[in-house]
Each structure stands twice: as structure tokens, then as C-alpha cells.
UniProtKB/TrEMBL annotation:
Key words, A-Z: Cell outer membrane, Membrane, Receptor, Signal, Transmembrane, Transmembrane beta strand, Transport
Record's subcellular location: Cell outer membrane
GO biological process: siderophore transmembrane transport
Matching PROSITE patterns: TONB_DEPENDENT_REC_2
Coiled coil location: none
This protein's name: TonB-dependent receptor family protein
Signal peptide: 1-20
Taxonomic lineage of the native organism: Bacteria, Pseudomonadati, Bacteroidota, Flavobacteriia, Flavobacteriales
Chief place of localization: membrane
PANTHER family the UniProt entry points to: HEMOGLOBIN AND HEMOGLOBIN-HAPTOGLOBIN-BINDING PROTEIN 1-RELATED, TONB-DEPENDENT OUTER MEMBRANE RECEPTOR
Amino acid sequence: MQKTHFYFLLLILSFSFLSAQEKCNYRGMVLDSLQFPVYDASISAFDENNKSAGFTFSDKEGEFKLEMDCGKDYEIEIEHVNYAPLLKKISLNKNMREEIILQSSSVKLQDIVAQGRIPIKMKGDTIEFDADSFKTGSEETLEDVLKKLPGIQIEDGNVFYQGKQIHSIKVEGREIFGGNTKLLTKNLPSDAVDKIQLNKKFKANPFANSMQDEEQPELNIVLKEDKKNLIFGNVSMGGDADKHYDLQEKLFRFSRKTDATLISDFNTYGKTVFSNEDYFQFLGGISEFMEEGGSNALRSSMTSVMFGSGQKATSMSNHLGAFHFGYEPIKKLNITAFALATENHLNYESSTERIYSDFTQRDEKTNVQDIFSFISRLRVDYNINPNSNLKYRINFNEQNQDNLSDINSFMNDDSEPSIIRKTKQRRDNTNVSQRLSYIRKVGKDDNFGVYLTHSHQKESPDLQLTATEEPFAGFFEFTPINDLYTLNENQNLVSNTFQGLAIYNHLITNLSNLRIKLGLNKNDQKLENSLFNHTELIQNEFTPTQMEFDFIELYADATYTRKIDKFKFDLGAGIHKFKTENIGTQTYSSLDLTRVLPHFNGEYNFSNASSLRLNYEHTYEIPQIKELTEAYDIQGYFDIYRGSANLRETRYQKVNLSYNIFNYFKFFNLWTSLSYSKKSDNIRTEGFFADQIQFSTPFNSETPENTWSYSIYASKRFNKVYTLKVNGSLSFADFESRNNNITLENKSDFYSGTLTNSFKFRKKFELDAGLNYARNDYSNQLNENQFVNWKPFLKTAWMLSDAILLQADYDFNNQFSNGEKINENHDLGFSVRYKPARKIYTYLTAGNLLDNNKIVSNSFNDFYTSINTRNTLGRYFIASVRYKF
């Protein structure tokens, strides 16, 4: 707690940019040669150290004002698309005002367009970025351009503004790729982008009144005129002389009534084309329903298929194909369809060393993983009339995973394996979800919406364990065949969810609003689980099992919104009634409770550029079917799990305080957040450990869990060349665990920070140099662990000419465990892009040039510390050619 406050104060003070020095106003009027005012001229000021001192635009009367430190010399740059640029020097010792005359430009029109563009424009709540003003020539995709925009942050392909994730990125006002922002940002060619419009106060409800608190940031991409009504994009082919290939195709077409996109990406050198997060974004159902303002307290029972990382595999192949089509036959109706298929094949070689209190076990493992995914979505938007809107969406998703592993286990310093075992897993997941929404404007200021969702999910995991040693001795009796023991588990889980939500908004006055919500969640699940000795069914008091689970949540919520000068707040509470019933072969359990859940959101706007927010929420989490089922569930060769019918609900309270300032004209951006959360009766897992076997079961922790977290993102452009970025986070958590009937009090502290120095020279050379630091401290009465990682990094792009681009990136991982270095890893990549013709590009890409073929990671629990070493793909060279349409 004290450490958090110290860091919070230190970081805020370290980024304070306000100065007590006396300020002087530099005012002016921009005129043309005929003494007419020049509107929308950009005025930039730089001090004697070439640092940015201010930026603004002239108004309709040609007037402008800059506030800067007195007693300094400045260089003033005035630019306008229709006039020649003007550069002048001033000494600002007191308030000044002068007239500035711009001369008509004598250069050709294309030169004016190329050199006289205004980088940033303000249009009400929308900020418009001129994409070409931020490009240097090294950009390939939209994501590369977004990274260079002030106030925009990219993390793992996701886009953030003021700490809020941007979930809606449209092209020419239309949704493509089924709304998946990452597919869009990583595939839309950068040379097709003309403007990037950031709407700071986008509202999903088209009839929302002025006081509804549904504002979220949204991006709209405006294409260049020569890209409209034509097919544009690129096709690439490449590979090496041995085992690698890289094939890509990205085609786009946008017209007045239709838009279509076709992309494919096949590669064998570790480039990630689709991730777990991308898949989850397409699931729909509950997640999308909650974005509309719904609520669901039931914990998820579905296990997700996890995509492996190709860069951490010894060999791999990724195949992806996606198609999007949009059609707007009339202005009232918009239809979009999207389908995507991916296939991943990965081979891993790894070693895991588990360090127990009295012995060490080392597993040498080879693993083959195959994943197939199919995703499709159909969306229909119909504006019935100017006062009502109807939307329908249906998703169909399917995933199949096969995982085969061979493991040799060595005890202590043995040279021969003590156990040889094989694991074979098969998992099939299917999800079909539908969502229907109707929104209507009532009168002048009121509106209501009705949202209905149905989701059907099916999960069928199968597990087979084969070993030279009997698994789970003491739990089951096995008969070996040919000196091998085999345990099979077959599981089937089906879930049906129905959700209904009605929302009514009443604008009481121009400064106050009342929102009423009524909701229903109903979930039915069926679970079947059987264990087999080879093909013989195992039967005891804990297997097989058949369970049926019913869950109902009814809720009503009222929220009052009020604006007082610069302060706006939402104050409300909901009444939630939860009821569950779990009927099975071994157990019966039920819950029936009613709770009042308050919530609060407050925002104080100091100015258009800065604000302070405070949020509080109180929620509940209800245990799901697997946690309540007292039947054996095999988690791995040494892990067996059994639920508990006595689980209660978890109470969860969270408060968050955040501050942001985004001053585009000072080139300064800061977002910082402090959070505290408290969980009571949290559901945790209790472990019993004996002879390497870990038996786990859930329990409600009687000790409240507390978590403090702090995060900061800041960037400051000091001059035309240099920009500093800082991204950091801290968290301090304490919680209870139970192992072998011993209650342990745990503390987990995490520190992470990245410092990036960015240099840009004449739009020809870019360099990012920085340092990433991560530290994780974990302790309880039995052990203490500390893991530290230092990673200096460099990334550069150099436009030698209009035809040649050089790029390189390097990082140096230094990993420590309890003060001892356990690994260091150098990673160097390099690429050359050459443009021999107007539409043709050639590439030479080299990865892992230093041929470091091992990655080390760490984990720990109350039983052992684990050090994992994985072999990687190794050095590769790819030559390719790209043709741009």
C-alpha cells in the first residue's frame, strides 16, 4: 500500500510538465498578399534547442495565439496548402502581436499536396490525422501508421486511446472483418490510407441522448480517392531454398454499395497470423451482450483451445484464409458476411525441470499440435425509420485440436528415464450464437432498446495417457497391457444460454438522465465424464458422472446521470436475484440469493485535454458446473481435479482512479491509473501433494484478497527529432492458498516498465532504443521466489532512397531466478526492401541471425519451482516479391 502510493506520487511528479516561469502571448494575424485573412494555417513554434514550444491553427479571421516562456528566442513556421511556407525568428520578451503575410505558392499542385498537408485537425469531438504527415516510407500496414499517431497506443495488435481499447475501427464508415480490429490493422495497406478520424465520443446507440454515458473511442479510416471503386492490395510470394515459404494475398474493394475483402497468409517461419485473442473476439454471445450494458455473474465453464506460438516452435506452418463481403442495396439496409479458416501445425521440443523440496524431476518432451478453426458471421442492420433501428447477428465458430506428446522423465541426476509416457488429446469446440437488438427513439430525448441473445456451446475433450508406470496409484486400479498402462477420459459438455435485456433512457433535463435496465440470464448445462482402463469403464463413487446445471439471474438496475459544470457522474444500484441447481450422479447443490449491487462513475474535465475519472463497481461470481461437480477430472499426468458442491458465490469490489492529459499541440500525452480490488470468498484451488501426484479441489477462501495496481503510459515529443515514451505497471496482491491442509498467506508483487527513445531524421531514418524490465516476487511461509528479466532493444528503419528500405531489430534478454542468471538470449532480425518498379517490391528477410535456439521461462506454485526450456525455429532467410494493385 505504502509502496504503491510512493510510486504513484513519484511517477506523477516525474511527468509534470507545468512550469512556474512567466508566460508571454505571441499573437498574430495571417494574411495573404491582398490582405485577406488566411484560415486554417498551421503555426508551429520551436525554441533555440529545437524543442517544440507550441502548435495551433489560424481561425476564420486569420487570428492565432501561442503562449510560451518569456525571454527566449523562437523559430516560427507557418504553413498552408495554398501558400508558400514561411519561416521567421522572434525574440519573445513580452506580449507580441504582428501581421504575417503569406505569398502564393509557385510550385506545382502535386508538390503542394505532398508538402503542405496539415497533420492534425479538430472537428468537434473528432480528431482527424493526415496519414501522410506521419509516414516515413517504412510503413506496410495501417498498424504501422497508427503507432506513430500521438495519443494512440498499440499493444499486441490492439489499439488504445486514453487507456481505453478501441473496439470499433471502420473503413469508409463500414465494418469489415466481422469487426475484428486486429485483422484490419495488420492487413489494410498503409498506402491506401488518406485520413484517420478518431471520434472520442462514439455511441453505439444511434439515438443516445446527450447525457447517456456510453461514449467510447472509435476510428474511421478514409481511403485515398484512387483506391475507391477499384481493387487494391497486394500479392506476395517468397521462401528459401530449403523448407520455408511465405505466401500472402490481400485484396480490397470499396464502392458506394458494396465492399469486399479477400486475404490469405501461408508461412512456415513463425509469423503469427491468428491468435487466441482473435478467436475469442469472434465468439459473440455473452461478451457482446455485456458490451450492450448487460450483466452475467456466472463463471465460464468452457475450456479454450490455445494457439501455440510459432516463434517458439522447432518447426511450424500457419495457413489462414478470410473473406468479407458487405452490401448496402438501400441506405436503410446494410448486410455484411465474414468467414475465416485457419490451420496451424506446430512441433515443439522442450525440457521442464521441477525442483521439489527433496528431489528434482526433469521432463524431456516432444510435442505435435494441430489446430483447425472455422469462424463465420452474418450481420444485418436495418434502419426501419429515422426513429428506430433493428440489428441481427449470427455467429458460427468451430475449433478442433489434436495434441500428441512424448515425455521421458528423469529423477535427480539419472541418465536413464525413470518413466516413459505419451499423452494424446483431442478437443472439439462448437459455438453458435445469435443476437437481435431493437433500438427506438421516443419523443425528443428518450430512447429504449431491447437486446436478445442465444448461445449454444459444445465442448468434447478426450484424453489418453499411456505410460510405463501406473498413473494415479491409490485413486484407480489399472491392468497393464504389454507393460503399458493406459488411462482414457471422455468428456462432453453442452451449454445453452439465453439472455434478455431492456434499457430505457429518460433525459430529465439537459443536464440529467435516468436509465432503467431489466435483465434475464438463463443457462442450462449438461456434463458427462467417463474414465477407462484401456477400454474398460472405471466405476467408483467419483466416476462416471452425469450432471445437469441450471442457472437463472434476474436483475433490475437504475442509474442517475448528472452533469454539474465540469463534473459528470453516474450513480446507481441494481437488485440481482441468483438461483442455481446442480443435480448429478454424486452430488446435489443449490444457491438462492438476492443482492443489491451499487456502482458509481465520475468524471471531472479540467479542460478539453485533461480529465480525472473515478469508477466503483460491486459484482458477484457464481460457481460453474465443473467447480461444483464432485467427480474426477484428469488435468494431466500428475494432476487430478474434483469439484466441491459446497462452493459459495464470490463477492468482488473494484475501484479505479485514472487521469489523462492529451495535448496534441504540446505533443504531450499522459494516461495513468490506480486500482484497488477486493475479493471475498474467492474461489481458489486447494492442493494435496504426495508422490508427485497433485490432487486439487476448489474452496472459498475465508481471507479477503486485496490487489493494488498502478499503470502509466506517457509520451513527449521534445523536438522534430526526439520523442520519449514510458509504459509501466505495478501490482501488489495478497491471497490465501491451502496445500496439504496447511493454510498459506501469499504475496505476489509484479513490476514492469518499458522506456523507449524514438528518433526520426527527415522522414528518412527512424530509431527506437529502449529498455524493458519485468520482475515478479512471490512469497509465503514455505518459500520465496523472484524472477527478473532485463531486455535492452533496438529497432531501426532507414530509407536509403525512394527504392531502398533497410530495417533491423535487436533485443537482448537477461533472465534471473532468485539472483542467479538462468538464461541470456540475443535476437537479431534484418530485412531489405527494394522497389525495382512502380508496383513491384522485393524483400529479403532474415530472422534469428544469432541462431539462439532456446527460450527459458519460469513458473512456481506451493509444491515446486519450474524452469522451462524450449527450442525455437532457429536462423532463417526468406526472399520474396510483392506486387501492389
